[in-house]
């Protein structure tokens, strides 16, 4: 099957855009806060990472139809929402390819249009960031090779409060096996939530997994990305405005996992 990709080489101008900023207006892309990751959403998926057409995502970097390049995506924002973190990271790490993975179609379309508009208004910038509509809980191995990623982000995921729905949580012992496969040794997994119970759950899952270890306090302070987990995201900004509290868990993929995977 072909890849479910939003073609990042085309843009359009219509009433969905703010005339003064040139950016899409979020109210035209509203969707439910979360989607059921266990539902059978219908969109094509690449059969393997080598079938991901990078030219559709990064048309100024890769030629049309180019697959199998030595240069690979390194950052993945799982459930990227409206793309706030990706946009910020794009200019902080201009030589790093990154992608947002989002299940909701309208939200994915908003992020696509946002990136395209930023490319037009800032020539030469934002060419390293893209978005794809997909179910990351099912298709991570279809997009990323073993040890490909250096950073994975799970920011304000759906808490799925009911115990019967905990299997839908994006951080779980089973899914951590897949994330460990995609992460390179010393790669970092970032999580944050404003739901204390979910924060404890994600931290416990990572602590119990043999392939991850927490960053030290010194490492957290030295990592420029940690401070962006809340401030660069729409969800984090909302929590801050409401005086809420957030709970982070940042872990490193350790080398001993190589003998397990």
TrEMBL record:
Keywords: Methyltransferase, Nucleus, RNA-binding, S-adenosyl-L-methionine, Transferase, tRNA processing, tRNA-binding. Its EC number is 2.1.1.33. The keyword Cytoplasm does not apply. One of its GO terms (cellular component) is tRNA methyltransferase complex. It holds the Pfam family Methyltransf_4. The keyword Chloroplast does not apply. S-adenosyl-L-methionine binds at residues 79, 102-103, 135-136, 155, 233-235. It comes from the Eukaryota. Transmembrane segments: none annotated. GO terms for molecular function: tRNA (guanine(46)-N7)-methyltransferase activity; tRNA binding. It catalyses: guanosine(46) in tRNA + S-adenosyl-L-methionine = N(7)-methylguanosine(46) in tRNA + S-adenosyl-L-homocysteine. Pathway: tRNA modification; N(7)-methylguanine-tRNA biosynthesis. Belongs to the class I-like SAM-binding methyltransferase superfamily. TrmB family. This is tRNA (guanine-N(7)-)-methyltransferase. It comes from Kalanchoe fedtschenkoi.
């Amino acid at each position: 099957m072909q890849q479910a990709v939003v073609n990042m080489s085309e843009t359009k101008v219509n009433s969905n855009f703010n005339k003064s900023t040139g950016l899409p207006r979020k109210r035209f892309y509203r969707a439910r806060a979360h989607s059921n990751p266990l539902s059978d959403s219908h969109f094509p998926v690449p059969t393997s990472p080598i079938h991901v057409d990078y030219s559709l995502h990064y048309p100024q970097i890769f030629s049309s139809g180019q697959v199998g390049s030595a240069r690979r995506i390194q950052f993945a924002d799982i459930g990227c929402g409206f793309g706030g973190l990706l946009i910020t990271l794009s200019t902080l790490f201009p030589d790093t390819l990154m992608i947002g993975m989002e299940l909701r179609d309208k939200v994915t379309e908003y992020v696509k249009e946002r990136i395209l508009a930023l490319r037009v208004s800032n020539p030469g910038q934002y060419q390293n960031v893209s978005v794809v509509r997909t179910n990351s809980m099912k298709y991570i191995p279809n997009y990323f090779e073993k040890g490909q990623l250096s950073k994975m982000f799970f920011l304000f995921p759906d808490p799925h409060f009911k115990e019967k729905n905990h299997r839908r949580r994006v951080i779980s012992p089973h899914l951590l096996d897949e994330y460990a496969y995609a992460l390179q040794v010393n790669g970092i997994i970032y999580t944050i939530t404003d739901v204390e119970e979910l924060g404890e759950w994600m931290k416990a899952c990572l602590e119990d997994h043999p392939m991850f270890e927490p960053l030290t306090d010194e490492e957290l302070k030295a990592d420029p990305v940690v401070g962006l987990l809340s401030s660069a995201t729409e969800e984090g900004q909302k929590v801050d405005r409401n005086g809420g509290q957030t709970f982070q868990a940042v872990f490193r993929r350790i080398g001993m996992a190589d003998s397990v995977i």
